[in-house]
Known about the structure:
The protein is an alpha/beta fold. It has 2 domains: 4-117, Rossmann fold; 125-285 and 314-330, Dihydrodipicolinate Reductase, domain 2 (2-Layer Sandwich). 32% of the residues lie in helices and 24% in strands. It contains 10 helices and 15 strands. Helix 4 (77-86) runs parallel beside helix 5 and helix 8 (174-190) packs across helix 10.
Amino acid sequence: xxxxxxxxxGLGVGERHIxxxxxxxxxEVSVLCDYDEDKLREVAARYPGIATKTAAEEMxxxxxxxxxxxxxxxxxxFEQAARxxxxxxxxxxxxxxxxHEEEARQLRELLSQHPEVVLSSNLVLRxxxxxxxxxxxxxxxxxxxxxxxxxxxNYGRLHKLTEGWRGRLDYYSVVHxxxxxxxxxxxxxxxxxxxxxxxxxxxxxxxxxxxxFNDMAVACLRFESGMVGKVTANFxxxxxxxxxxxxxxxxxxxxxxxxxxxxYQSRDPADAAREIRAEYPGVNKGDLIRSFVDxxxxxxxxxxxxxxxxxxxxxxxxxxxxxxxxxxxxxSYL
Length: 334
């Protein structure tokens, strides 16, 4: 089998994809691309022998490239993913896959026209050893019947909205760019389906800056099973980056803390919680790439499928709509 030839667009986070591809014996990174010539030279110097381009279109149209990683600014993801799919290239795209619901519909249609294309998105919290351990406990019935979940994307990096590229885009969503991780995590952990959301947002923390969109959003969730939940995207919090997670079941409660996870299986305050010492977050930005390449070469199921990415984005689109209108919004899955 010939090696998969890969191109990477966007060398901020995208540089961290290189290690993921290089660890797989079945592929090689053939082209690095970034419109910023200084960034391109800087990164290329660390990886001699790899071709470089400043125009993404050239790489996306290059028939010798089999797969692409898209790690550009969020507003470019849709156009670049669509062009890659039209050209029959497999796509590994940073979150969010796109910014608008109509764009997601178009990507769905393109994938239906090119069933040979594998698309995955970098929803990397599925690879966290601690969350994988929690999923095993849920599936083993240790928490019983789940009835409430909380998932908080506490970003703690407000300056990335007020001073970085996010604040310069025509549109940026903290839900699509942050809460999507927690939405996907809840869908994956519980195996349930979010059917309705109600949400609110504000920009109190960034109100004196040029950033024009919510820096905070909170959504109440109703699941198909009857379970309820809450998810937040909190970019203005004064604390280091952290993924807050609590899962409540009829037999136990899991709470994620920095030092460890804790599994409570008693209501008696004298009974200590079990410490879950699996590493957190314990993930690198390229950890999902092996399963992506295996899906292309072996026909196996990637850890994050295209369906998974569209499900998470469908919930995020509903949350964004709900922040702009009163009442509950039904999730329309794409």
